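The following record pairs a protein chain with its ligand, nicotinamide-adenine-dinucleotide.
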Amino acid sequence: MKILIADAFDKSLPGRLAKFGDVTDDMGKLGEAEVLLVRSKTKVTPELLEGAPKLKLVIRGGVGLDNVDRAACKARGVEVLNTPEASSVAVAELAMALMIAIPNRLVEAHNGMKEGRFLKKEIKRTELYQKTLGLVGIGRIGSEVARRAAAFGMTVLGYDPFVKEHPVARLVSLDELLAKSDYISLHTPLTDETRGMIGAAAVARMKEGVVLINTGRAKVVDENALAEALRSGKVAAYGTDVWPSDPPPPGYPILSAPNVLMAPHIGASSRENLLRIGDCVVAILEKRK
Ligand code: NAD
């Protein structure tokens, strides 16, 4: 089996895959590859597939398949698999990190110290304890966040049309979630239904001063409506790891909006997660031996 590792996986992976055949990271060998491993960087397009006549399997190390043209793969008889279960804890911990950093004003406090300003009197923190968290999308990652937020003493609400019961969150309508939440964290995939779901109308139904966290997909949010809500203070802060592209275009409104805490799409990039993704890739290839 000829395996081409196109993107950044854990550095132990080539060694672990050697038992399945020849392993390379040389994109020049695409024409010989039977298995292609991608994360987010490589786009599996019809053009790429044209250069890969022997390809039988694409494995995306991660949750979504946004960078893989599944229809084109299907037409070519190329199977597509991913590793959706690996990343839940890594992404949930980043969502919690954003949700903790914002009310504790950690970036401002840190920057003040660096600049020689001791902001002890100026910085007033708020607590997560006894606040209400609304999770939009309560699948694998949303559920990991739910458990952690409950441990912080938060009341956890969930909106997910495909989930009928949940051990931690009280399931409510989207309207109720928007109206009652002090924090809202987004954990849906990007679909026709979720694209732009958090727009001007949704923002209007939220509490004044709500904090929005997004480790799902950038386009679930209408960036113009959100930038306006940040400027007006209706949304007190936006913590995000996700962008319309990696990196976002320079004029993307969120980059210049106030009270935004930004991460460069690192939700899945924990060391432990890269190892877990590697375990999943090995398990997939093991089954096909
Ligand atoms: P999942 O499939 O386990 O959960 C997604 C949930 O969203 C499901 O329960 C589904 O029913 C729900 N959903 C679908 N449409 C909805 C709608 N219209 N309204 C409300 N809920 C809806 O997926 P997951 O593993 O929890 O991952 C969630 C998302 O996180 C992924 O789709 C991906 O976009 C994102 N993600 C981001 C990173 C990152 O690096 N920041 C990494 C991995 C995944």
